[in-house]
Every structure is written in C-alpha cells, then in structure tokens.
Amino acid sequence: MTEKIQKPHYDEIDIVKFLAIVSMIFVHTYETLAESFTSESKVGYWLEFLIEFFGGAPAAPVFMFCMGVGIICSRRSTPALLCRRGAVIFLLGILVNALEEILPIIYESPSWEDFLEWLPGLFAADVYFFFSLMFFFFALAVKSGRPKVFAVSAIVVSLVLGWILPAADLSADNMILDLITGLFVWSNEYSFFPLLSWMIFPAMGYLFGDVLIRSQDRSGLYRKTMLISGAVLILVTAAGFLLGQENSFLNALECSDEAYYCPNFISLAWGGAFVLFWLGGAYFLTNQKPVSHIPLISWASRNIMPIYCIQWLVISLAVPVLLMAENIAVVYLMCITVTAVTFGLTYVYLMTFRKKSRVTAAEG
User: Fold this and answer.
1) What are 315-334's pLDDT values in tens digits?
2) E strand or H helix at 23, and its extent?
3) Comparing C-alpha atoms, which of 245, 294, 296, 295 is closest to residue 270?
4) How far is CA 279 from the centre of its chain?
5) In whole angstroms, how large is the CA radius of gyration of the chain?
C-alpha cells in the first residue's frame, strides 16, 4: 500500500522566499549602479555589506533549497511535468539573459560588433539555466525510483568538487565549448550558477522536505535543525579561518566573481548550514505570528519566476537613472523603488495574463 502523506502549506518557506527575492532585487540593483559611487564612511561600507550579504546566502541558495522542498511537496512532480518545466525555464533563461546582458548597452549607441561581443551573454549559465537543468535532474531522479539516492549523490558531488574546482582552470579557450561546460562547472566569465557546484542546495531541500512532510513535531524538528546547523556554522567558520579558505558568503563585499560562482567546500558547507538555520528562524517567527494572512508575502513567494524576470526589465530600462546614484542613501532608495516597481508590474502582468486566459477558456 502506498503511504499517504499530508503536504500542508509552510509559512516559513513563504517568508524565506519573500526575503530572498527582495534581497536579490536589492543586490542586482546595487551591482548595476555600484561603480557610480564610492562609500568612504564606515556606515556606508556596512550598508553596502548588508546588501551584498543578504544577496548571497539568504538569496540564491534559499531559492534553490526551496525548489527542492517544492518538488517533493508537489503532486505535479512527475518526470514528464518536470521535463516540461525545465524546457520552458531554459527558454525563459535566454529571454532573461537578453534583458540582463544586452538591453543595457542600447543606451551606449552600440555598433553591430558590440552586439556580437555580448552575444555569448544570451547563453550565460545564470540561475534560470541552473533551475532548468535541476528540473531535468529531478525528472531523471524520480523516473529512476531512487530520488533520495540522486539527492545524496548531488550533495557529495558538490562538496567534493568544492575542494577541486576552485583551484582548477577548466577553460577550453573556445567560447562555444566554454558556454556548454559552463552550464556544469565554472569555466568562464559566463558561468554564474554552474550545475555541479550549486546542486547541493536543491538536493538538500529535497531531502529536508521529505523529513518535513513526515514530521509530527515541526517545532522539535526545527529546534534540532537550528542547533545542528548553528554548530556547523561555527565550526565551518572557524575551519575556514584556520585553513585560510575564503568563505564567499561571509566575504560578500570583497570576494571575486569566481570565488562566489565557483564556491569552495567551506562556502558550500557554510551556505547549506545557513539556509537550514535561516529557515528554522523563519519557522519560529511565523509560528508565533503566521504570515499566511499577509497577501504580499504569500503572493510573492508563489510568483518568483515572473518577478525575477521583470526585475531585469525594470533594472535594464532604468540604467540611466540608476547610474545617477551618488551615495548609499540614494542607492537604498533606488533599490526600494526598483523592488516596488517590479512587484507592481508583475501584478499587472499576472492579472492581465490570467484575465486573457479566462476569456480564452470561456470562448473555447
């Protein structure tokens, strides 16, 4: 007999996803205009650090972790549907890359050669391509009948490569080959979220989600999770200092692109422990004050993909204005404005799309 497991709604997942998307919009806006100003005060430095830090571990790793939780908690996680989602997201990834990489240079009156130079950016291994590949990975895992084995293997692969890849030069000195290999390992400047380095987070989410939906004592589960992950955070932080290994999530403001997008073992272990600790904190916060009645949080957590796509449209179109920032206060104001405009446009888009869908269904 197949075991039937109740899959309730989790407020803590909603809140960490909401904080993640806001943090990601902030950091993308900040990084777009970062070269237009310099913070000379200590206050300015720490305000910049906050944007970069929350745009690190509490952002992309949280999205990836929640993806894994969502897959095991969804009744629609069949191999066919997972493959379909992967294909659609791959195509969306090309659109998002166009908004992110190419649209901003229009303001510079580019030549045809400039467009050709930026053409590889269309296929940059950004987060959309990562999610696409992970959906294919989980489709294969579910089809095999051993998804937990696949998830554990993914964690092991990421951690092992965390020791090897940061010191390896994997570039083939061929743009086409580098774009292909860059989907899986960090091999060039377009390898933003290579699969093998970052798959640890959705794999952890899948395994944790399996424990979560079976748990009869969520408070006890999260209490143990926070105690263990908190201890791991302390131990890994100390190990990083003792071994002289950079923690790209802690050193958010000064680490290189390669150090962030090709995280080492210390960064991966710290990031994984942080996500679990962060989620536990969100649980105890929402356990006392549920957020399910706050429409903005639950709405944003359900519409991560369109929000992420539209934020790049807003940022790209606003580049001339964003580059006028002269101090950190203006930067924060612009980050807040971009977030508000992104949410507003996403709402309008979703309402328009759903209205057209209802009209088409009625006519059919």
Assistant:
1) 888 877 766 667 788 888 88
2) helix 11-33
3) 245
4) 15
5) 21
Residue 109 backbone zone (phi > 0: left; psi -120 to 50: alpha; other: beta): left
How many Cβ atoms are within 10 Å of 245's Cβ, its own excluded? Answer: 18
Tally the residues of the chain. Answer: 364
pTM of the model: 0.87
Burial of 180 (0-12, 13-18, 19+ CB in 10 A): middle
Of 226, 215, 221, 209, the closest CA to residue 280 belongs to 226
Model pLDDT for residues 75-123, shown as the tens digit of each residue:
888 999 999 999 999 998 888 887 776 666 665 666 666 666 677 777 7
Task: State the DSSP string of 142-179.
Answer: HHHT-HHHHHHHHHHHHHHHHHHGGG-----S-HHHHH
Q: Tokens 């009625």 map to which residue?
A: 362
CA neighbor of 240 nearest in space, from 258, 261, 223, 263: 263
Cβ contact 45:256 at 8 Å: no
What is the identity of the amino acid at 178? Answer: D
Query: Measuring CA to CA, how many Å separate 24 from each of 135, 253, 312, 351?
Result: 22, 15, 11, 24
CA distances from 281 to 130, 288, 312 (A): 27, 11, 30
What six digits make up the tokens of 323? 């580059």
Residue 41 DSSP label: S
Strands (E), 47-203: none
